[in-house]
Amino acid sequence: MSVAVVALGGMATPASGEAAASGNPSAQARHALIVRSDLPAGWTTTPSINPGSANFTGAPQLASCIGVPTQLIANTPPEVDSPRFQDKGAALAVQDTISVYPSARFARQEFAAISSNKTPGCISALLQDVGAGTGSTTVRRLTSPKGTAAFTVDTTVQSAGGAGTHLELVYLTEGQLGDAITLVGAGPPPPTALARHLLAVAKSRL
Fold first, then answer.
1. pLDDT tens per residue, range 21-60
2. Which one of 61, 85, 87, 192 has the fewest beta carbons within 10 angstroms of its own beta carbon?
3. DSSP structure class, residue 68
4. Range of the structural domain that residue 164 is part of
């Protein structure tokens, strides 16, 4: 898991339990990704941006703060990524990443860790330590539909005169798949209607 996903995502208890783990989960993941036609007219695509998580050295600190095994934070499951979608003014971007976990049970364990009430504060503390002296970061849990978890991360950069970035992530799972939809941009939060639409699309495909 990358720190962004840890900060913003969570694991929802799969509605169908172990049943969804059968078949070919990687093919299911590719089929479920958001595509260009799911976005409003005028949006464009660029190659995906995925920082990965192999070098996430903060996993032990974060796991200790939440109170879970480090492996639940440091795991790096196979994943598939959509392109990066941008609106007409390139002020807002969307990307969809679906991870294929070892089992639905593992996904439920992830949910228990990431959806902890401690997680936003632990993530905020970790990101403040990493970026000490360069700005501020605030992580909050958002209200989201049952079976999903949503987070927001707001950053300000001192060297840019207080300018910053707003990032939202909505996470849902089905069986051993974990789907993270990320919306990021400068300025105001992404439109609520867009986030709800993309969530509905993702839920219908998993």
1. 447 899 999 999 999 999 999 999 999 876 554 557 888 9
2. 192
3. S
4. 3-205
